[in-house]
Amino acid sequence: MDTYTPSRTRHAVTRTPEVEGLLEQIDRLDEKTAQEKMLPAGCYTSPAFFAFEQAEVFSRTWICVGRVEQVAQPGDCLATEVASEPVLVVRGDDGDIRALSAICRHRGEVIPCAEAGKKVLRCPLHYWTYDFQGRLVGAPRMGDAEAVQRLRQAVRLPSLRLELWHGFIFVNLDEKAAPLAPSLAKLEPLWAGYEATGLKAMPPVMSDTPLPWNWKVHVENFTDAYHTEYVHIGTHDFAPSVLGDDGVRYMDMKPGDNAIVRSVPMRKPGGGMNSGGWSEDSAFPAIATLPPEQRERITFAMLPPSLLLMMAPGTIAYTLIRPAGAEATLAGSDRVTYGGWLLPQSTLDLPDLMERCAAVSAGGSKIWAQDVPMNRGMQASKHSRFSPDGIYGPLETTLPQFNLWLLETYRRAMAG
Ligand code: FES
Ligand SMILES: [Fe+2]
Predict the structure, then answer these.
(1) Residues 140 and 224 in one domain
(2) Which residues line ligand 1 (CB under 6 A)?
(3) Which atom number of ligand 1 is nearest to the Cα of residue 108?
(4) Highest taxon of the source (predicted)?
(5) Residue 328 clears pLDDT 90, i.e. is over it
(6) Calpha distance 171→273 (Å, rounded)
(7) Which residues pair with 361 in a beta bridge?
(8) Same domain assignment for residues 154 and 190
């Protein structure tokens, strides 16, 4: 009764002829051609392929749903979604954070977060109640005490895999998934300077209107070091991908890696975001405990498929991605909505913090306004009979790296 089996519907949902056709095309790619060519356009437009990705990518990889600050105290609860599954992230009296399916075991109503101060999850339809470990507590009018006791012993909200990584909460619907942290090992050295001062999150607002493109278009735009010089004139010049002998640097991508990483230099150390975009005058002051290398560069890390990080001298700005359809993506960050910053207490204590946040948000919005038509154009081109196979230049190394990540993930799905 309480076993969650994500594979139950997998094959029925995923293996339509259209999906099979796309997978055959993908299967013909080898490691070399996947680095030279874009994936078939149908991977960005097909509702059936999107269903395949929901079942095989978003249900089997680690999805970031928020931050520990959002469930700071016992009794705190965060309602979220993973691959369209309603999920509750709760902190129990024991201090542990757990992820539970939010689907009531009675007849399947979606259970919302507990009311503040009430450490019990209550289904709104017939008031079955559960504790923060998912155990059934009460089931009114379901028979005598003995009958209810039998239910209490049998019924439990499915518990989902959860992993914390530097305060980010990741959930995985696949109970057999490999642990997350080893796949992010190459990012570890970047954290020490931030964590020496301690960071607290101002979580982003998640957009409620889907952006009209596939989630892959969104993350490709984020990771593309080539477009900044052309699309972001006036907002990104301070952090160019080519700067004399310096410029963008990449981290190697090995099989099993879950981070696609590039860094770019700034024209002056300690810069950051301000109301006009990247600037030597950062609205969030540079963090003193960062090593010089990290005060001179901005690191962009994509943790596919759900989290984007910008590690800047004054903050780590993050974007949460939640796909809503083949051509619909929800996102939350200082570029798309508001918030999504990790900040030291010294910045949070500044008397003009709100003005600084507004400046960062304004700068991010300017950059985003430049990206939006590009993303619309890329999505539109996926429908074109003239859609190209693509050619990647030296400033686009992260894109073939992402292709390899996708190839590995799709192949794992094809293998069953
Ligand atoms: S569906 Fe939840 S109590 Fe009936
Ligand atoms: Fe951009």
Answers:
(1) no
(2) 104, 106-109, 123, 125-126, 128
(3) 1
(4) Bacteria
(5) yes
(6) 30
(7) none
(8) no
**Residue 237 sits in the same domain as residue 296:** yes
Residue numbers of the domain that contains 134: 64-164
pLDDT computed for residue 150 by the predictor? 97
Counted domains in the chain: 2
Q: What is the pLDDT of residue 274?
A: 98
Tell me the average pLDDT of the chain: 94
Which of 126, 130, 148 is the pocket-test mutation for ligand 1 (most atoms within 8 Å of CB)? 126
pLDDT digits (tens, 9 = 90+) for 102-123: 999 999 999 999 888 788 999 9
Ligand 1 atom index nearest CA of 111: 2
Share of the chain above pLDDT 70, in %: 97
Distance in Å, CA 235 to ligand 2 centroid: 10
CATH number, domain containing residue 405 = 3.90.380.10
User: Which H or E run contains 222?
Assistant: helix 215-223
User: 361-404, pLDDT tens digit by residue?
Assistant: 999 999 999 999 999 999 999 999 999 999 999 999 999 999 99
Between CA 300 and CA 261 the distance in angstroms is 6
**Exposure string (b/e) for 193-216, b if CB count within 10 Å is 16 or more?**
bbeeeebbbbbbebbeeebebbbb
28 located within any domain: no
Q: Are residue 281 and residue 159 in the same domain, yes or no?
A: no
Q: What are the E-state strand segments in 267-388?
A: 272-274, 277-279, 297-303, 307-311, 316-325, 328-332, 341-343
Measured in Å, residue 61 CA sits from the centre of ligand 1 at 29
- Residue 70 belongs to some domain of the structure: yes
